[in-house]
């Protein structure tokens, strides 16, 4: 039985939007899961880390990545690209459809086979230590209710985006969305113009008719602000902001204000939409968080929850939230070394990515010190 104790935490962000800052200075980890959260916790035979009064957050989740078979990004001629994401504290990777495989199939049997294969690969393969939630079938005409049930039975949590295949209208995609809700498989939907050859533009009325569970990269300008407001008011869907669609600060601020009016920040998800033609963004979720905090007035604890626990709740992931029984995937961070700020919170409020000391997955150190793909922190955690 392994035990780890993180103590002397100055600020503890939970990732749980209902209670985003915890009144605690210690986390006890046992066999990879969070076993205690409180003040002045102690444990015999525990490996102890002193957080030095700095900030602990859950590891982040990228809600929108187009993985291929294995860790391969054909569009960018890149291998092992997800390692840099994990080393930045972004240890959860949600597939939005395995679209970039050359000559990928487009028939029902083919897209199902690709989804099953990719799901099975990433069920045991952790690139750089990241947990990849793959098998996001590309929605095409001809898929049946039984196909969706089969995916659910395999443990696949979601589909890829409507718009990547030819099921794009309420009478085709909408039916798949209904089956998804029946079997607990979330459906995602592209918004706006196309970014990939063979995909379909998705406008406001089409999306309203489909009623997907997740509306992707909303703040990229493809959907007008009036359409965004209709989504917020007329659908229960989660709303996603992605880094590589160059999210407009104006559109981001509009969405933040809409969700604040309705007290519904639990609907906000953050991703990158990589590896697209824009490139690979291993800090992308952090960059969206700092945009929302620095320019849109979102509180750091809410932005952290949008980049972690909100996505976990959407896709049924028992991680990336500081909660008893959840996997201990955690970041110890502070203001970046050499910056004008005194804490991670100050840094985030200014729109600056924090310096990262240590990243844990399942209670074990994944990276620390020079292995971290981020600025060093002013104060670093110490293993005692």
What tags apply to this protein structure?
2 domains; 21 strands; single chain; TIM Barrel; Urease, subunit C, domain 1; 28% helix; 11 helices
Characterization of this structure:
By secondary structure, this protein is α/β, with parallel strands linked by helices. Helix content is 28%, strand content 23%. It contains eleven helices and 21 strands. The chain has a six-stranded mixed sheet. Strands 5-4-1-6-21 form a five-stranded mixed sheet, with no helix packed on it. Strands 13-14-15-16-17 form a five-stranded parallel sheet, with helices on both faces. Strand 9 and strand 10 form a beta hairpin.
Describe the structure concisely.
With 384 residues, this protein is an alpha/beta fold. The chain is built from eleven helices and 21 strands. Strand 9 and strand 10 form a beta hairpin.
